[in-house]
């Protein structure tokens, strides 16, 4: 499997855990004290890091740190939008599209040769 694809797949999986760690408590633990939500989120975040660290190490063999960072941000937005709409029941906003277009511009500048 190509290194870039390995990196992308690991980062997607990492971001699913990250998104649940950062925002899942808003739906599931909103009636609990914040420190319980934080402890629960840290537990989920461990799995994020177990995927993100290898993804960045693998990816850094063919990409710069800046390229890895913008790739991470694009994946974060790509995971977050469906999560917000489908799981948290947030309404769709055109701002999601505009943010995505800005990210495409960032990808262009980070990956141009």
Automatic annotation (TrEMBL):
This is DMT family protein. It comes from Agitococcus lubricus. Keywords: Membrane, Transmembrane, Transmembrane helix. The keyword Membrane applies. The chain crosses the membrane at residues 34-58, 70-88, 94-111. Pfam families: DMT_6.
